[in-house]
Amino acid sequence: MSFNIVHPEKLAAEFLNKDKQHEPQHDEHLWTSRVKRDKEAASIPEWEEFRELASRIKQHTLTHLDQYLEQFEINAVKHGAVVHWARTAEEHNQIVLDILRQHSVKDVIKSKSMLQEECGMIPFLEKHGISVTESDLGERIQQLDKEQPSHIVVPAVHKTKEDIARLFARHIGTDPNNTDAHYLNDSMRKHARPLFLKAQAAMTGANFAIAETGSFVVCTNEGNADIGASLPPLHIASIGIEKLIPTTEDLAIFIRMLSRSALGSKITQYTSHFSGPRKNSELHIILTDNGRSKRLGMPEFWESLKCIRCGACMNTCPVFRRSSGLSYGAVYGGPIGIILDPTIDEKKYSELPYHSSLCGSCTEVCPVKIDISGQIRQWRRVMADHKRLSLIRRLAFKAGAAVLSRPKLFRAAEAGAYGSIKLLPHFLIYNNLFNAWGKHREMPPFAKETFHDWYQKNHENDEHIQD
Amino acid sequence: MMSTSRTDILTAIRKNKPAAVPRPTLRDLSSSGIEGDLLALFKKHLKEADGEFYRLESGKEVSALIKKLFPDAKVICSATPEVKGSRPIKPDTDPHSLADVDVGVFRAKFGVAENGAIWVTEEDLVITALGVLPEHLIVLLDPDRIVSNMHAAYREVKLDEHHYGCFMMGPSATADIGAVHVNGAQGSRSLAIIFLAH
Ligand code: SF4
């Protein structure tokens, strides 16, 4: 037994039991994104063809990744960028620190980067006396609250306006009772500007890296990455090696799908392409592996490297929407997180594959056609093979206490998903399965076995759940 | 550089990569999702992204419009010869000095009907900060320079020739607080396109 294991059901309970406001709002906001996504996807008649193309382009690039990385490097260097290679998070962080020290940097302004998050870069730099400010509003909110982002696209989506008003009041002196989003945003805009102007270095991630031109693309709605990159004479970009695509022609497919899948907008407000440094400036690119080349060698899971981090699988996931990204206790939450996190630490995240209803809605919406629910199922098998099942004996499911302490109701609810939807009481943790399921049409989205059937099969040795 | 890291990563990839998947050939997709007049679509989608548009005949008219829209603007910085701002901008201007710009003016290379975005590079901005630091943006665009969708757009784009290029779709936006849509998150608070032939 390890105390290091993340118990998503406990974390989910914390969120669900908070009050009557957080969970329904979270659910509603994410579901709105999902609905908008459907509308935008429908505006492209070739959407399904695009998903297939996007998947194949990614498969092609990943199966030739060495060549594309070399090509990217040659072209980026040709434009005047300095290219670094990092095997691990530690190496990545050390390279960043070395560059910052060479330039005597004390203050960094950064835009959102899941890779930098994954590397634990901010705490590392702070330990070495460098102050780092998140400039994406949602990330900034999370940074001030000393919490991980709960969603890869909308990092503070689990917080209410009231939460944020109180947080800003504490940190930037706003009126704690003024919960107007315009007021709060404007206050943060004014607070952040001097930090942008003061920073001696800007950091970004990248959504795509183009081998043909040595360019990388950063997508934001706020323009914060562009502000950072346009001010100090030093720009450092952290790029996971799986971000490569061959050409700008390929890029068009991904740009058309990314924001439509994420928030249901046509593209992000800013889709910015960087090819080499500004005049009198330096651009450093850190190509980072951190487990990706290893994942490439896992026959069941390598396709997870196709992920473009759109968050659509989170928005549609009934478990995610009800229990929030914080319940995964990991950098990557949601369906994709369930697949990625155990490749980082199998033991620690051994319970994550069970934080899913296997409804398959994630697989349906994924723009690069990752068989997410299939891979989650696969992870359950791996956990069983590796005898990790004994670790989940205490299936407290406090989150679903309401559900699991009333198994009959739960089973009725599950069965009901096939038929009437109206009967369902709101307290069921999984009740939003039904709108997720009900809304989707292309494929039969139901898991063949219900949660209960699955549970019976897989938890024979566990404490029995009382009817 | 950490040369062993480079070798190690490439070696691991070569060892681990699955069987080669061929590159799919892309057919011409430049009319995908596009029906109707390109300019009309551009305007519709620009509006949806909270951008404004005007059709004017001369740089003088643009200056007059700026006065009308932003009567309190003190600093106007223009990167396009059609409009004379109050603050000159040169390639060696310190970007930090644009922090107090009320209105930034530049000309975009082309627009995209599919989404109402414009394509702009450092060549058009003189320095990239002009695209994001001003409170408001006025963007000149030749109404004949509208491409259909992102496939057509990326055919026009020459990433090799510019260190910075951006598809800008309306003003800066966020919905990070209570899912309420707010403009002016960090970049410009407003963006108006002026249709003015080049
Ligand atoms: S797995 Fe698919 S749906 Fe989920 S974030 Fe990645 S690309 Fe988007």
Topology (elements, then pairings):
The complex is a heterodimer of chains A (467) and B (198).
Chain A: H1 8-16, H2 22-42, H3 47-62, H4 65-78, E1 82-86, H5 89-102, E2 107-110, H6 114-118, H7 121-127, E3 131-134, H8 137-144, H9 161-172, H10 181-198, E4 201-204, E5 208-210, E6 215-220, H11 224-230, E7 234-240, E8 244-245, H12 248-262, E9 270-274, E10 282-288, H13 292-296, H14 312-316, H15 318-323, H16 334-344, H17 361-365, H18 372-385, H19 401-404, H20 407-416, H21 433-439, H22 451-458
Parallel strand pairs in A: 1-10, 2-3, 2-4, 4-7, 5-8, 7-10
Antiparallel strand pairs in A: 5-6, 6-9
Chain B: H1 3-16, H2 38-48, E1 52-55, H3 59-69, E2 76-78, E3 103-107, E4 110-112, E5 117-121, H4 122-125, E6 136-141, E7 146-147, H5 150-156, E8 164-168, E9 173-174, E10 182-183, E11 190-195
The structure holds iron/sulfur cluster (SF4).
Iron/sulfur cluster is lined by residues 261, 307-313, 336, 365-368, 370, 372 of chain A.
Give a structural overview.
The complex is a heterodimer of chains A (467) and B (198). Among the domains of chain A are: 44-290, Rossmann fold; 406-458, no CATH class. In chain A, 47% of the residues lie in helices and 10% in strands. Chain A is built from 22 helices and 10 strands. Chain A has helices at 8-16, 22-42, 47-62, 65-78, 89-102, 114-118, 121-127, 137-144, 161-172, 181-198, 224-230, 248-262, 292-296, 312-316, 318-323, 334-344, 361-365, 372-385, 401-404, 407-416, 433-439, 451-458, and strands spanning 82-86, 107-110, 131-134, 201-204, 208-210, 215-220, 234-240, 244-245, 270-274, 282-288. In chain A, β5 and β6 form a beta hairpin. The radius of gyration of chain A is 22 Å and the shape is globular. Chain A starts with 7 loop residues before the first helix and ends in a 9-residue tail after the last helix. Chain B has 198 residues and is an alpha/beta fold. Chain B has helices spanning 3-16, 38-48, 59-69, 122-125, 150-156, and strands at 52-55, 76-78, 103-107, 110-112, 117-121, 136-141, 146-147, 164-168, 173-174, 182-183, 190-195. In chain B, the strands form 3 sheets. A 5-stranded parallel beta sheet of chain B has the order 1-11-6-3-2, with helices on one face. A 4-stranded mixed beta sheet of chain B has the order 7-4-5-8. In chain B, β9 (173-174) and β10 (182-183) form a beta hairpin. Chains A and B meet through α2, α3, α4, β1 and α8 of A and α1, α5, β8 and β9 of B. The site of iron/sulfur cluster has 15 residues of chain A, from α14. Residues 261, 307-313, 336, 365-368, 370, 372 of chain A line the site of iron/sulfur cluster.
